[in-house]
Amino acid sequence: xxxxxxxxxxxxxxxxxxxxxxxxxxxxxxxxxxxxxxxxxxxxxxxxxxxxxxxxxxxxxxxxxxxxxxxxxxxxxxxxxxxxxxxxxxxxxxxxxxxxxxxxxxxxxxxxxxxxxxxxxxxxxxxxxxxxxxxxxxxxxxxxxxxxxxxxxxxxxxxxxxxxxxxxxxxxxxxxxxxxxxxxxxxxxxxxxxxxxxxxxxxxxxxxxxxxxxxxxxxxxxxxxxxxxxxxxxxxxxxxxxxxxxxxxxxxxxxxxxxxxxxxxxxxxxxxxxxxxxxxxxxxxxxxxxxxxxxxxxxxxxxxxxxxxxxxxxxxxxxxxxxxxxxxxxxxxxxxxxxxxxxxxxxxxxxxxxxxxxxxxxxxxxxxxxxxxxxxxxxxxxxxxxxxxxxxxxxxxxxxxxxxxxxxxxxxxxxxx
Length: 417
Known about the structure:
InterPro entries: CFA/CMAS, CMAS, DUF7884, SAM-dependent_MTases_sf. By secondary structure, the protein is of the alpha/beta class.
């Protein structure tokens, strides 16, 4: 055991490159070692197997699983813990798969429903502890970065509505409608007629009750439905999909956008808001943290790169009008969520238990770190159904997204030619 511990410490020190690591490790036999005089993180390894696993690589996954299962203790601020985990991951990097291997989940209606149930049906009361008043579980939209989460999420809902240029009585489909926040906002502020679909039983029940409570049953319909089972054809004026297509799977993106094309009217708009890979090769095989996310957070989740999303949209005659990267907005959103969850820690543990609390806390803190350091991105992509050769009217510029009465359609002016 002494040789194993010594090999581990020597390996870490060798790969630090002279940089200080603010970490103290307390080993299973009581032996302690500090890599720096300034210690910000204390790690307790309760078993020698963790050292063996770390020496084999994929440090972030090893540390994440050990922390959740309670066999690795971590004391310190999340941001310091994650910085230390990143340094250890450089010392013990993820093993690369064989060339050409593409990790893909086998997405089916039943398997997707099971994955959604695992993540979203924890309990509505749990999400209410730390989400904003509109119960929006996706990246908020900040104008200064100093807004509270309620303000930033209201700004996000309105930003989407403005981006889609919603008009009174237009038919809006929200795929993956969550707890109904976007549809309720759009109905109250833009007077749309809306349909929302979700696979989560908890979200479905909450959203339907919310629509009734808000007096919007004449404007909004909530369905417990898979996106592949939407019956309408050439029916909706606008489609929104927020934080949903991460669950679709890369191999299913073509089918997903084919459904959107089918349900949209000619000239209808779609706004797809979702997490994307920051690097093209992040799609291939295993990367740091993926085992942890697959096992504990988002079973079968797959993150495509922006190029793949745009290609699949274009393949279904969905012409891209606008792309916006909200990466820093999601880092800030996640920081708010972690802080709010920590503030209600005792209540959360009473609801979901210690282990699941650790999963949520470290997952959201880790995601905040990942977005801030450009390991992941978040793109809003606005597109129009352009199936015919004749130009579908669209705005000349983006000013309409931010200013009232700034929307002007691009119409050809042939003059005398």
